[in-house]
Amino acid sequence: MTPIIVPFHHDERLPADSLPVTGETVAPDLPDGELWPRLVALHSAVADTVAGRIGSGGVPTVVSGDCLVALGTLAGTQRAGLDPAVVWFDAHGDLHTMSSSTSGYLGGMALRLAMGAEAVTAPLGLLPLAEERALLVDARDLDPAEADFLRTGGVTRVEVDDVAQDVLPDGPLVLHVDLDVVDADELTGMKFPAPGGPSGDRVVRAVRRVLDTGRVVAVDIACPWHPARDADEAAARARLLAALEPSRL
């Protein structure tokens, strides 16, 4: 099944060559005005496409420029009548709220938003994700507020090499992979690089273990990177995306 390509970082349209993969592009005209209605329009279009793919018996793969699009992917699985948990590969926690974030960067709130931020979940018709239904993988770069949330909340966090069937949430799964989970020395040019991460091969093997459960109903891949500086960097990105395609795993 061809990927669903969402060429956006938040509500900003990306250049055509930013996501080196071919597939069905979802790029609706967004309304003028404030950010949240624009994001809702984008994510709703993603949700409709994901729901349609699932309704046709497929396991859609969504490739975009940021983690926020995972909200549309998750909403799409729910529109298709499923109630999935989430396995979230990321170098960061993505667990901030508007009040805890020091930068205001929305991508750093994506997983927490899925847990019930009314500005997004209500217009999308997204049922909030229970904390206990989220598995956070890696998250080696946590801010203090995120670390506090993990200590007191229900989200489980594991290392990449510890991803196995016995730590996964029950039921159907949405598998989210922010490519900055890969070590910044190997996958260069990320917007928010985090050193000391796993190799791309280790991430691919962990992703394969999740897919091998047969419970993944949608895959969401975020590519929050700067434009490729040269052909070698672009080729490395394309190889990693190809390696993560479920049909090749």
UniProtKB/TrEMBL annotation:
GO terms for molecular function: arginase activity; manganese ion binding. InterPro entries: Ureohydrolase (IPR006035), Ureohydrolase_dom_sf (IPR023696). It comes from the Bacteria. One of its GO terms (cellular component) is cytosol. Gene3D superfamilies: Ureohydrolase domain. Transmembrane segments: none annotated. The keyword Hydrolase applies. Keywords: Hydrolase, Manganese, Metal-binding. Pfam families: Arginase (PF00491). Belongs to the arginase family. This is Arginase. It comes from Actinokineospora fastidiosa. The lineage of its organism: Bacteria, Bacillati, Actinomycetota, Actinomycetes, Pseudonocardiales.
